[in-house]
Amino acid sequence: MKYISTRGQVSPTGFIDAILMGLADDGGLLVPEQIPQLSSDTLKQWQRLSYQELALEIFSLYIGDEIPRADLKKLVDDSYATFRHEDVTPVRRVNNGLHVMELFHGPTFAFKDVALQFLGNLYSYVSKKNNSIIHILGATSGDTGASAIEGVRGKQGIRICILHPHQKVSKVQELQMTTVNDSNVLNLAVEGTFDDCQRIIKELFADVEFKHQYHLRAINSINIARILAQTVYYFYAYFQLANQGHTEKVNFSVPTGNFGDIFAGFLAQKMGLPINKLILATNENNILARFVNEGVYQPGEFKGTYSPSMDIQVASNFERYLFYLYGEDSGIIATLMEQFKTEGSITIPGDVLQRVQSTFSAYSVENETCLDTISEYYEKYDYLLDPHTACGVAAADKLMADGEITVALSTAHPAKFNEAIELRKIEQTYPKQIQALFNKPQFQRVVGGSNEEIKDQLVKFF
Question: Which reaction is this enzyme known to catalyze (predicted)?
């Protein structure tokens, strides 16, 4: 399998080179040259596989013989041995139409662990095999940072620097990152928003000379390995329901700000998974919902919400979707992204919007609706949602039709966002791993939001 850039100016490259490149050297995003097509017979054969066995089959399609199968199996097994549930991403029935896929059973209680435990082990494997230096640079709206740090802390040959928006993540998210004192970890708290952090990351990776000089590697979902790892649990959720006798197509409701998690579902659908509708749930930072409903991609006014991991205005994976929306025409994508850079918006014609709406539905969830949903599901079903999952559930309640089956992706354990939970007078017990964080010292540096200031910190650290 080879990987190409959405902007068409990078020669096709292998999987390992693709994950090391992260952001394509032409400023685009890497995608597989062809998307594997799965037959109904293959889907039936996969239906009884364990999560680890399924991950191995899907990764093999995208990696080929670059990593021997025995080595890949060990990477997969090691990555998911850290999860607290034997099914890795179990699906729980909440009511007649709604199931919740719990993606928070990894080390940091967030869905990012599913991809970043694997990517961390993959980077370590490549570093040892090639005797190469790996310096990871990432930005987080809260969960990516902790999951990435957990995936590589203490590993030889790897150093990691994570940027997060100062005082704009939950306290538990902050503690999970900043109580780590390993010598290969640097936390930078940036005075600004997540969009500022993400812009800095993309601009530093676009500085190809700096990127190569300091061996920068990506941990954010601009890295194609992140998307591939997240694709697995869409298949696994569908198979869990099929094993319970559900034979119809399934909706997936996905809380998203960066378009990575829901793009993984789009990729699964293009591979042949019988998905009925992808429901895109945003909070009041609703650039993606407005795009699906109106055909205009334009940042609005930033709003702090109870679901801070989705407080994002510019979605870094959106370009990958545009690439497929426009028939994999890299020339059009390069033009559109230049237009967005100069004009600040992209507007698509009506016929193209119809294609978007044939795949996606979207709903923007207001702050109070998010809290109402948490209260309602706790009282009715004795099920506690974190505020991001609550956005996904609220969108599902709004958009799914009678008789449909919908899986809402539960992206984090509610203990990570107690600030929102306690607003509705709900008391919860922290898992012991999270409770222990409050007694630990923190290690972080507060910095300004200029590229040069971040570069200066990186040069000193790397």
Answer: O-phospho-L-homoserine + H2O = L-threonine + phosphate
- Per-residue pLDDT tens for 270-290? 999 999 999 999 999 999 999
Give pLDDT tens digits for 407-442.
Answer: 999 999 999 999 999 999 999 999 999 999 999 999
Model-level pTM greater than 0.70?
yes
Residue 130 included in any domain: no
Annotated catalytic residue, options 2, 73, 112, 155: 112
Residues 6+ away with beta carbon under 8 Å from 99: 91, 92, 93, 237, 241, 405, 406, 407, 408
Task: List, in order, residues 6 or more apart from 44 with CB less than 8 Å away.
Answer: none
Q: Within 13 Å, how many C-alpha atoms sit on residue 303's CB side?
A: 17
**53 lies in a domain?**
no
Q: Is there a contact between 33 and 12 (Cβ–Cβ < 8 Å)?
A: yes
Indicate whether 358 belongs to any domain: yes
Question: Could you tell me if residue 144 is inside a domain?
Answer: no
Q: What is the CATH number of the domain that holds 330?
A: 3.40.50.1100
**Which regions of 370-454 does DSSP assign to beta strands (E)?**
406-410, 445-447
DSSP 142: S
Residue 367 lies in domain: 91-109+225-424
Q: Is 303 marked active-site? A: no
> What's the number of domains the chain is made of?
1
